[in-house]
Amino acid sequence: EEEALIKAEKLFIAGQMAAGIAHEIRNPLTSLKGFTQFLKSKTDNYHEYYDIMLTELDRINAIVQEFMALAKPQANHLKNHDLINIMQHVNTLLETQANLNNVQIRTQIDDGHPFVRCDENQLKQVFINILKNAIEAMPEGGEVMIELDTRQSDLVMIQITDQGIGIPKEQLGKLGGPFFTTKSSGTGLGLMVCHRIIQAHQGTMFITSELNKGTTVTIQLPVIQQY
Ligand code: ADP
Ligand code: MG
Questions:
Q1: What is the pLDDT of residues 147-186, one digit of tens each?
Q2: Both ends of the chain: CA-CA distance in Å?
Q3: Distance from the alpha carbon of residue 14 to the mean position of ligand 2, in angstroms
Q4: What does the record give as the reaction this protein catalyses (predicted)?
Q5: CA-CA 20 to 30 A from 109: which of 25, 27, 176, 222?
Q6: Longest C-alpha distance within the chain, in Å?
Q7: What is the pLDDT of residues 96-133, one digit of tens each?
Q8: Distance, CA of 207 to CA of 178 (rounded, Å)
């Protein structure tokens, strides 16, 4: 038991260090990006190289940001929030990216109107990460369905289903582990962040998938009241 405690403490310290480093990396990164853009605008040569540099800088930035989300103290701004509001806000945020990829995001809500005690930004981050994965899983476009099931009074079930490439069985177990990605420009941190946040909200999250058919992410969260 003591060993477990020491391990938890070590993990915590590692997390804090990672967050600190991530934070420090952001400023130099911003100036690198700015000057790269500047140099690109000053010449007609080597644009493809500048573009690679900019893409890679964006990738570092994404990793750094996800790292910071990971190491942030979890669920410490808890308030009662209207879950439907949160979902609608996330949909608005992702509308452009969805449109660009020929993806329709549809929402199906039953009669209930659940309120959830949560850190609003963290919960939004969860849905953003999951919807981004859904969009990225459908290179030819398609539909993402968000369903809210409020039939149980004390919890809400949120299911997000895409019609994408799916996940091979042997990879399902690796999801949510750090840096597991199958994307050329992925970070492999998105789902890990989701798990951490949902856990901190006393919820559960699991993923089912069928190859070439699609993927469903199911989240259950405690509900404080329904209207
Ligand atoms: P990233 O998106 O940066 O790769 P994530 O943690 O968000 O990192 O996802 C990890 C991996 O899980 C992805 O690279 C992909 O292989 C798989 N994955 C997650 N969501 C989906 C999905 N909706 N459809 C297919 N594969 C998915
Ligand atoms: Mg992702």
A1: 999 999 899 999 999 999 999 999 999 998 878 999 988 8
A2: 44
A3: 23
A4: ATP + protein L-histidine = ADP + protein N-phospho-L-histidine
A5: 176
A6: 63
A7: 999 999 999 999 998 889 999 999 988 999 999 999 99
A8: 16
Pocket test for ligand 1, best of 181, 194, 207, 219 (most atoms within 8 A of CB): 181
- Cβ atoms < 10 Å from Cβ of 26: 13
Pocket test of ligand 1: the residue of 191, 206, 219 to mutate, having most ligand atoms within 8 Å of its CB, is 191
Question: What is the ipTM metric for this complex?
Answer: 0.99
Task: Answer with the residue of higher pLDDT: 104 or 200.
Answer: 104
Tokens at 48, concatenated: 């493809």
Mean pLDDT of the chain: 90
**147 alpha carbon – ligand 1 mean position (Å):** 20
- Please work out, in degrees rounded to the nearest 5, the angle formed at the alpha carbon of residue 70 by the alpha carbons of 66 and 72: 115
Instruction: Please state the length of the chain.
Output: 227
Is pLDDT at 2 greater than 70 in this prediction? no
* β-sheet with 114-118: strand ranges across: 79-82, 114-118, 225-226
In sequence order, the 6+-apart residues with CB closer than 8 A to the CB of 165 are 137, 138, 139, 211, 212
Q: Are strands 103-109 and 214-222 parallel, antiparallel or unpaired?
A: unpaired
Cα–Cα dist 14/18, whole Å: 6
Q: Mind spelling out the 3-state secondary structure of 74-110?
A: CCCCCEEEEHHHHHHHHHHHHHHHHHHCCEEEEEEEC
Beta-ladder partners of 206 = 218
* Cα 44 to ligand 2 centroid, rounded to whole Å: 34
